[in-house]
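Narrative of accomplishments. A recurring question from our advisory board has been how the design workflow behaves on a single, concrete structure rather than in aggregate. To address it, we present the structure tokens for one chain from the evaluation set, followed by the sequence designed for it. No filtering or post-editing was applied between the two.
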């Protein structure tokens, strides 16, 4: 039986808030790393508009794509009900090693709800505040906006998220963990 592999994701939220997320690696290719966060450590639920899309202690399956300016989370309620896809716009990951990487959050997020497929851009006000306060430069903010536009356009055409995200369900990720350790 294989040993479960954990990864550490060093996450910078500008200007200086650093968090290390520890997740279980369930699948790795050169194009994508799939990780499972069995229970999110949230102080309060995450909302997209009025809808709760991720609850404290809820599971999330994450997809990291080397070279891309976003990662993707498949969000759930605490009881495991799938709520939708969340694109977190960030700098492309820099690998410190095979199971450790770092990235910087660029404030903007894209939400695609499981119920109606609506596409919503989140946290534009946070990006504007970061620009105003000098916590992000204009070039990086422009890159964040461009990535957000790419994701929202692809989602509107039904071309996002990629197939690997649709095939690695919570059940499949949990099954991979059960069979690895």
């Amino acid at each position: 039986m294989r040993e479960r592999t954990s990864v550490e994701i060093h996450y910078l939220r500008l200007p200086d808030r650093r968090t290390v997320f520890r997740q279980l690696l369930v699948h790795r290719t050169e194009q994508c790393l799939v990780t499972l966060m069995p229970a999110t450590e949230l102080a309060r639920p995450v909302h997209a508009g009025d809808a709760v899309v991720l609850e404290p202690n809820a599971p999330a399956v994450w997809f990291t794509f080397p070279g891309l300016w976003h990662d993707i989370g498949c969000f759930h309620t605490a009881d495991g009900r799938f709520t939708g896809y969340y694109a977190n716009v960030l700098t492309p990951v820099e690998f410190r090693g095979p199971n450790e990487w770092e990235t910087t959050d660029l404030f903007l997020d894209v939400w695609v709800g499981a119920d109606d497929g609506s596409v919503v851009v989140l946290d534009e006000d946070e990006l504007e505040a970061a620009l105003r306060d000098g916590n992000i430069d204009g070039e990086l903010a422009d890159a964040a906006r461009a990535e957000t536009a790419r994701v929202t356009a692809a989602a509107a055409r039904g071309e996002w998220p990629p197939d690997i995200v649709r095939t690695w369900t919570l059940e499949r990720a949990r099954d991979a963990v059960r069979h690895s350790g």
